[in-house]
Design brief:
Radius of gyration: 15 Å
Number of strands: 10
Structural class: alpha+beta
Shape: globular
Largest sheet: 8 strands, mixed
Strand order of the largest sheet: 9-8-6-5-2-4-3-10
Strand content: 25-35%
Number of helices: 5
Order of helices and strands: HEEHHEEEEEHEEEH
Mean pLDDT: 94
């Protein structure tokens, strides 16, 4: 069982400031389509990383886009190598979770933790968004 999904997550007393927004599956595709409706100036505010069925965008809290079902991620000072859900806290000490997940990821940081899907997404490789690359990613996500 995946560490991120095996944990219990409960509401945070204080939400973390959002530094990223993530979508998985159809939510990722909806997020990408939402972002593609923005002008180039706005698109230039974000960096992103994408994989099969997952999209994570990083940017300033006031600029992050919204789409139905997305998860906002922030940094807990007790686990700075992780981007954790802004409104959920793990049932273990964040520093212990960080150590376990970074070890599992082979030392790659920072990592976006997506509890519902159990995914750990390395966001260090995030690059400025390209409209063309995002369109191509969308095309690869759509069923044949």
């Amino acid at each position: 069982m995946d560490t991120a999904t095996a944990l219990l997550w409960s509401p945070r007393a204080e939400p973390l400031p959002a530094l990223a927004v993530a979508g998985v599956g159809p939510v990722a595709l909806g997020l990408a389509r939402r972002v593609l409706r923005e002008d180039d100036t706005r698109l230039g505010l974000w960096r992103g990383v994408a994989g099969a069925g997952v999209l994570v965008l990083l940017g300033d809290p006031d600029t992050l886009p919204w789409a139905e079902g997305v998860l906002y991620l922030g940094r807990d000072a007790r686990a700075p190598a992780l981007l954790l859900p802004c409104t959920l806290a793990p049932d273990v000490a964040p520093a212990l979770l960080e150590r376990a997940l970074v070890s599992r990821a082979g030392g790659t940081t920072p990592l976006a933790v997506l509890p519902r899907s159990g995914q750990l997404v390395p966001v260090g490789p995030a690059r400025p968004l390209s409209r063309e690359a995002l369109r191509a990613w969308c095309a690869r996500q759509e069923p044949p």
